[in-house]
Amino acid sequence: MSKTKGLHELYTENPEAADEIVWGRNVDKLSRRGFVRGSGLAAMAAVLGASIPFARFMPGGLIPAALAQTDESFAIPGKSGLIVLNDRPMNAETPAHLLDDPVTPASRLFVRNNGVPPSTFDVDPFEWRIQIEGEACKQPKVMTLGEIQQRFKHRTLQLQIECGGNGRSEFYPAAKGNQWTTGAIGCPNWTGVRLRDVLKDCGIGDNAVYVAYEAADTHLSGDPTKQPISRGVPLHKALEDESMIVWAMNGELLPELHGFPVRLLCAGWPASVSGKWLTRLLIRDRVHDGEKMTGQSYRVPCKPVAPGSEVSDQDMCIIESMPVKSLTTYPKSGVEITHGTQLGVRGHAWAGDAVVKALHTSIDFGATWQKATLRKPANRLAWQHWSTNLAFPETGYYEIWARATDDDGRSQPMVLPGWNPRGYLNNACHRIAVMVTA
Ligand SMILES: Nc1nc2c(c(=O)[nH]1)N[C@H]1C(S)=C(S)[C@@H](COP(=O)(O)O)O[C@H]1N2
Ligand SMILES: [Mo]
Q1: What is the mean pLDDT of the chain?
Q2: Residue 272 near ligand 1, beta carbon < 6 Å
Q3: Ligand 1: nearest atom to the Cα of 117
Q4: pLDDT value at 32 more than 70
């Protein structure tokens, strides 16, 4: 498995050629319908160490999940088992099987920084100041976090947070940016106050359109006139019950990496709208134009485009709700079971602003699907837990595919959704490998 990275590159460049190179160049490696056949199939089975009972349904150009996942981990203070994708800025994701907890512990929440985090470990949280102003703010104010905590009602909600680029690594042609696989998602409990309560206290003008944040982190270049990121949401999203200013995660003060002493949380949208180390809130009379709001950042083509297309800035639209998605968090991909035993399988599903209505699994590469048990969310915008028991007809290599459907009838694509230049919104079915032995 030391060649795993090479395998990804190979498949990203040209999945069909990769099948030929990896599984054998000659013979009928692919049938006309694009399934792996003949000596190619034999080579794949040899590497996996088992036959593949549902090979007839297995699409070509697909790295078996058993080979697609690595286990490298690096040490980040307060984290365990995360995979580091970049160390400046710090970006680290969580392997799927480490996201098994119903409520994500701080030690297993992914980290995404765009700049250099401020050093906040010795600040007094009560004295931290947030400026509230902007063209559409009637009474601009400066409030300390202490004041906010005293004046407004506290609430605790479980809210999902997912990077807009989660899943980017699978797009072809490849998109630049952190090569997230599936681990830039988590769903901790957050404690704070409603963003709405604070905004209303400062007077929301009739001309208000957008609410934006600025923060205390600094630009990678060291240039003090540049901000690493400053994004926002339309007024209606900012005013939702679940949009919060938070200072605690899972009952403890926010970890430094996650925005200590205070951050925004607007769940269900790309997590880039949830500003960490919050210093300023702007009630704006126009769509916010801060760093990473404009150009191609956190935007997708307004109309679908062919893979690899160049899209001009004016044809790119800001991403709002994240799409329906799910993960299998137990068992870990690569699990071995003996033939005849049932396998208990579970995970989470979420759907941006929507609710997940059904979760199906398949053990035959998507030819047939079985309905799993799906629980209601702890509250709106929390992920939902699903579970099921699966039986396997004979020994061999299987993949479990999980597919969620939201209350609008939209479901996850089996392989890849619409290509876009920056590689956002990949909500393809998560796949795990299972080996059934005699
Ligand atoms: N101030 C600030 N806020 C930020 C960021 C940042 O770099 N600086 N990154 C954003 C992005 S792109 C994501 S995905 C989330 C990640 O949150 P986490 O690191 O707490 O998991 O924070 C968002 N808020
Ligand atoms: Mo992100």
Answers
A1: 91
A2: yes
A3: 8
A4: no
Identify whether 259 is part of a domain: yes
Q: Is residue 269 part of a domain?
A: yes
Q: Is 92 in the pocket of ligand 1 (CB under 6 A)?
A: no
CATH code of the domain covering residue 222: 3.90.420.10
The verdict on the CB of residue 108 being under 6 Å from ligand 1 is no
Report if residue 56 sits inside a domain: no
Residue 204 near residue 282, CB atoms below 8 Å: no
pLDDT at 69 over 70: no
Rg (CA), the chain: 23
Q: How many CA atoms lie within 13 A of 131 on its CB side?
A: 8
Listing DSSP states for 245-266 in one string gives EEEEETTEEPPGGGTTT-EEE-
Note down the domain range covering 163: 83-318
How far apart, in whole angstroms, are the C-alpha atoms of residue 215 and residue 264?
A: 10
Number of domains in the chain: 1
Cα torsion 149, 155, 157, 162: sign = negative
**pTM for this prediction:** 0.88
The verdict on residue 245 lying in a domain is yes
Ligand 1 pocket test target in 99, 159, 276 with most atoms within 8 Å of CB: 276
Atom of ligand 1 nearest to the CA of 113: 7
- State in Å: Cα 163 to ligand 2 middle: 4
What is the rounded CA–CA span in Å between residue 295 and residue 315? Answer: 10
| DSSP state at residue 324 | P
Tell me, using a 6 A CB cutoff, whether residue 114 lines ligand 1: yes
- Ligand 1 contact, 277 CB (< 6 A): yes
- Three-class SS state of 190: strand
Closest by CA to 248, choosing from 193, 205, 207, 297, is 193
pLDDT at 431: 96
Structure confidence at residue 30 (pLDDT): 47
Exposure string for 141-154, b = 16+ CB within 10 A, e = fewer = eebebebbbeebee
